[in-house]
Design a protein that fits this description.
Strand order of the largest sheet: 1-8-7-5-4-3-2
Oligomer: single chain
Largest sheet: 7 strands, mixed
Radius of gyration: 26 Å
Structural class: alpha+beta
Number of strands: 21
Helix content: 25-40%
Distance between the termini: 17 Å
Number of helices: 16
Number of domains: 3
């Protein structure tokens, strides 16, 4: 659900809302182009934009005074909130006791090398360290902090601030903060993404509480286990391994301990960043093939003109023998998901407009709780009744990766209102039984990405995006060795 700014202010009156100007967006965009992939560029853009807005807020609020008496804190003098200054050589922003001007025209190299790999920016206010975590969402459900900001002693913060930026309407919402101890002790650790997460109900919305707390005493941090040392030879080997270009951050491609030690060393981190940027620049000139934007919503309207011109083809199903239809229909009521999935596939191969097959597929859509079965049933419904409102539409495009032909398949299924499900698949063709070992299917949207590598004897790779909104954009990349083909989609 998307709320307007006025509605959010009514629902969350204690939260802080800041304007995001077109100039700030333009400046941040122009300063964050030198990254190895689209996800890193977008991550850097959001972080720099939020940093600019937050810094401007601190500068433009000279009356942020701490009146301890009015807060019930005893007889303490009023104090001007310190201004922020970004140091030229360190990865964090620092604050001095006297108000100083802030220049963010040139990105700190340390910040660039961090944003290549993970989300978040550290700011130091006197002796207090903050980490701001931006997201491109209107209403966030949780504060999700990369493990690096929590379990590396030199990087851990006293407070973690969640910030949601609405680029379309131009505003930033600071929806709450948590201390290091609370994030470490009560946060849910997600090993798949190496993040600590807290729901909004577990965050403190009012930043005034934090401003007062940091003046009274330092926030108590949880204990952090020391990390094992990483030798120079081990670091060089890891840099060579992780320095190859990819569509996503390599932070999950090795164990956390050696990755953390590599990241915290500024020289090693910068070397890895430069290697990935240089490799990506070379690759983009020599072997990357990019195509025009594919508009999936046109497919549901049976408008295939642009898709056909771009090389996409409609999928023609082989007809199913009529004698086997009764057996297929009986499988729909099986408790075995595999049999139901197989039945849906076969029902899509009957003669078009077969009423019994259509009704059976609709029954399968209505009764199944399994997303993959519903997706397959909707796609097969699209094969025999393409104009039905619950029918999905699918098309394929033949591409070559190092002279190896494969088919890229995209299928769009309507769900409700402006929500859809998208299935993406890459499949071997032309009598090739299996996909090349190591071929990858990568789907990226903003700073998020999913990668599926082909293992031995894989004939196809597929993934399902269970809910996407009309207007959402994402990229699909098929890569093998030094060649990659990218298709950009908009729903």
């Amino acid at each position: 659900m998307t709320f307007k700014l006025e509605e959010l202010i009514t629902i969350y009156p204690d939260e802080l809302y800041l304007d995001v100007s077109p100039q700030q967006r333009e400046e941040a965009w122009s300063q964050t182009r030198n990254y190895s992939n689209q996800a890193a560029c977008w991550n850097a853009y959001l972080n720099l934009l939020v940093l600019k807005v937050f810094v401007a807020y601190l500068q433009e609020e000279p009356d942020l005074l701490r009146d301890a008496e009015t807060r019930g804190c005893g007889d303490v003098e009023k104090e001007r909130f310190p201004a922020l200054v970004v140091r030229e050589s360190l990865w964090e922003s620092d604050v001095k006791e006297q108000p100083l001007s802030i220049e963010l025209n040139d990105i700190d190299p340390g910040l660039s090398s961090i944003w290549e790999f993970l989300n978040g920016t550290a700011i130091k206010l006197g002796k207090t360290r903050l980490v701001i975590i931006p997201e491109e969402v209107t209403v966030s459900n949780e504060l999700s902090v990369p493990q690096e900001w929590v379990d590396i002693a030199d990087w851990a913060a006293d407070y973690y601030l969640g910030m949601a930026v609405n680029l379309e309407d131009g505003w930033l919402r600071i929806y709450g903060y948590a201390t290091h101890r609370k994030l470490k002790d009560q946060g849910k650790y997600e090993p798949m993404g190496r993040t600590y997460a807290l729901g909004e109900d577990d965050l403190i919305e009012d930043l005034d509480v934090m401003w007062v707390a940091r003046e009274l005493c330092a926030a108590e941090r949880a204990e952090i286990a020391p990390l094992p040392q990483l030798s120079l030879s081990e670091a060089e080997k890891l840099i060579a391994q992780l320095g190859q270009p990819s569509a996503y951050s390599p932070r999950l491609n090795t164990a956390f301990a050696p990755w953390a030690m590599l990241l915290v060393n500024e020289q090693w981190r910068e070397k890895l960043y430069q290697m990935r940027s240089l490799s990506a620049a070379t690759l983009s000139v020599t072997t990357t093939l990019s195509k025009a934007l594919v508009r999936l919503s046109q497919w549901l309207e049976q408008d295939f003109g642009d898709a056909l011109n771009a090389g996409w083809q409609q999928i023609i199903q082989e007809p199913l023998a009529a004698t086997s239809l009764s057996v297929v229909r009986s499988s729909v009521h099986s408790q075995d998901d595999y049999l139901r999935l197989q039945a849906a596939t076969q029902l899509g191969q009957v003669n078009p407009k077969d009423s019994d097959a259509i009704n059976t597929l609709l029954e399968l859509l209505a009764t199944s709780q399994e997303q993959w079965i519903c997706q397959k049933a909707a796609e097969c419904l699209g094969s025999i009744a393409p104009h039905h409102p619950q029918a999905a539409v699918s098309m394929q495009k033949q591409i070559k990766i190092n002279d190896h032909p494969v088919a890229l398949i995209a299928a769009l299924r309507p769900l409700y209102e402006e929500m859809f499900a998208v299935r993406l698949e890459v499949r071997s063709i032309d009598n090739q039984t299996y996909l090349p070992l190591g071929l990858k299917l990568v789907v990226s949207s903003g700073s998020d990405s999913i990668e599926l590598p082909a293992e031995e004897l894989d004939s196809y790779l597929e993934l399902l995006l269970p809910e996407v909104r009309q207007g959402d954009q994402f990229s699909v990349q098929v890569a093998w060795h030094d060649t990659q083909v990218t298709e950009d989609f908009v729903v």
